[in-house]
Design a protein that fits this description.
Layout: H1 3-25, H2 27-36, H3 42-56, H4 62-69, H5 81-100, H6 107-122, E1 134-137, E2 144-147, H7 149-178, H8 184-227, H9 252-268, H10 271-280, H11 286-305, H12 312-327, H13 334-365
Helix pairs in contact: 1-5, 1-8, 1-9, 2-3, 2-8, 2-10, 3-8, 3-9, 4-8, 5-6, 5-13, 6-13, 7-11, 7-12, 8-9, 8-11, 11-12
Length: about 375
C-alpha cells in the first residue's frame, strides 16, 4: 500500500467518523419531542429515527452536489485529502464540544465552516478560493440556477430558522383552533399516534439532509485524489475509489455506507442534546411535538430538494420555539434559547478558524 493510498483511507475514516458523530449529535433533532411527550420510549424512538435516517439518505443528491462542487473553486486551488482531513477534524472537534455542553449546534455548518477554513489555508488566505455567488448552467437541461456560499449556505442559514419559527407558530395556532372543542384525552390519544408518523417524517428529513453532506465530502475527497494521481496504480478490486468526474452521480456504495454510518450513530443516541431540546426549552404534549416535527421535516424536505445544506438542528429548534410561543409566550426559557443561538452564530467562524489553523500547522510541519 502506497503512502498516498494510506493517507486517503485515513481521511475517509475521519469522514465516516464525522458522519457517525453527526448521527448521535443530531439524534435529538429526530426524537427529542417524541421522547419528551412520552409517546415512545427512548429505545423505540432511536430505532424509528435510525431506520428513517437510513431511508432518507437514499432520496436525492442535490445537497451532496452543493458540498462537493458549490463551495470551493478548484480553479484557484485544488482540494486535497489534507484539506478534507482538516475540515473534518474541525467539524468533529466542534461537534464534540457542543455535544458535551448539550448545545444543539449545527453539524451542517460545522462541516461547511471547516471546509471553508481548510480551503483558505490551502490557498494561503486567498478568499477567491471560495465560491460566493455564480450562475450554474445544467449540462442536460440548459437551465440556469444560482450556486455558491451566499445562495446555498447564508440565505438558508437565515431563512430556515425564521421559517421554523413562523410556520411552527402558525401551524400550532391552526391546530389549537382545530381541537378547541376536543377533550384532553382525545387530543393526547389522536396526536400521540400522529406523532409517531411525524417523528418518522423528521427522521427521514434528517437522513435526507445530513447524510448527503458526507456523501459530497467523500466525492470531493476521491475526486481530489484521482486528479492528483494518487489512485493511478490501484489494484483492480479498488478501482471503484476513482472518481474522474465529480459532477457524476454519487456511486451507490457511497450512498449506502453513509446511510448505514449515520443510522448507527443515530442509534447510539445523543442524550445530552435530547434533554436540552426535549425537556429544558419548553414542556410539550403530543400535539406540540407533532406540530414541531411536521414543520421541521417539511422545511428539510423542501430545502434538500433544492440542494441547500440546511441545518436540521436550527430547523427543529426554531420549530419547537414557534410551537412553544403559540402555546404561551412565557413558557419559553429565553436564557437557554439565547445560549443556543450563540452556539449557532459561532459555529461557522469557529470551525473555519480551526480548519485554517490545522491546515497551516500541518503544512508547516511537512
Amino acid at each position: 500500500m502506497t503512502t498516498a493510498l494510506f493517507l486517503l483511507l485515513v481521511v475517509l475514516l475521519v469522514v465516516y467518523a464525522f458522519e457517525y458523530i453527526n448521527g448521535f449529535h443530531d439524534t435529538a433533532n429526530a426524537i427529542a419531542t417524541v421522547v419528551s411527550t412520552k409517546v415512545l420510549t427512548p429505545r423505540q424512538a432511536l430505532l424509528l429515527a435510525a431506520g428513517m435516517n437510513l431511508v432518507g439518505a437514499f432520496f436525492g443528491q442535490a445537497v451532496a452536489k452543493t458540498i462537493h462542487s458549490g463551495i470551493v473553486d478548484d480553479k484557484v486551488v485544488a482540494v486535497t485529502t489534507l484539506t478534507v482531513f482538516c475540515a473534518m477534524l474541525a467539524g468533529i472537534i466542534w461537534n464534540l464540544i457542543t455535544w458535551w455542553f448539550g448545545m444543539p449546534s449545527s453539524s451542517t455548518h460545522a462541516l461547511v465552516g471547516g471546509l471553508i477554513g481548510a480551503s483558505l489555508g490551502a490557498a494561503g488566505g486567498n478568499w477567491k478560493v471560495l465560491i460566493w455567488s455564480r450562475v450554474k448552467i445544467d449540462k442536460v437541461t440548459g437551465k440556469e440556477s444560482m450556486e455558491g456560499i451566499y445562495h446555498k449556505v447564508v440565505v438558508p442559514m437565515i431563512t430556515s430558522p425564521l421559517l421554523g419559527l413562523v410556520v411552527g407558530f402558525l401551524f400550532m395556532g391552526f391546530l389549537f383552533w382545530l381541537i378547541r372543542n376536543w377533550r384532553p384525552h382525545k387530543v393526547n390519544t389522536v396526536f400521540g399516534r400522529l406523532q409517531i408518523v411525524s417523528a418518522g417524517y423528521m427522521g427521514f428529513g434528517h437522513g435526507m439532509a445530513d447524510a448527503q453532506k458526507t456523501m459530497g465530502v467523500i466525492m470531493l475527497t476521491l475526486f481530489a485524489a484521482t486528479q492528483a494521481g494518487e489512485l493511478n496504480n490501484l489494484p483492480t478490486w479498488l478501482s471503484f475509489l476513482q472518481v474522474p468526474d465529480k459532477s457524476a452521480s454519487i456511486p451507490i456504495w457511497i450512498v449506502m455506507s453513509c446511510a448505514i454510518t449515520m443510522a448507527a450513530g443515530t442509534y447510539a443516541g445523543g442524550w445530552r442534546i435530547i434533554k436540552t431540546l426535549g425537556h429544558k426549552m419548553v414542556k410539550m404534549k403530543p400535539v406540540h411535538g407533532f406540530a414541531a416535527e411536521t414543520t421541521a421535516a417539511t422545511i428539510l424536505a423542501a430545502t434538500g430538494y433544492m440542494g441547500m445544506p440546511v441545518s436540521t438542528t436550527h430547523t427543529i429548534t426554531t420549530s419547537i420555539m414557534g410551537v412553544g410561543a403559540a402555546k404561551r409566550w412565557g413558557s419559553m426559557r429565553w436564557t437557554l434559547i439565547e445560549s443556543i443561538v450563540w452556539a449557532w452564530v459561532m459555529t461557522i467562524p469557529a470551525t473555519a478558524l480551526l480548519g485554517y489553523v490545522f491546515h497551516r500547522l500541518i503544512t508547516a510541519a511537512q
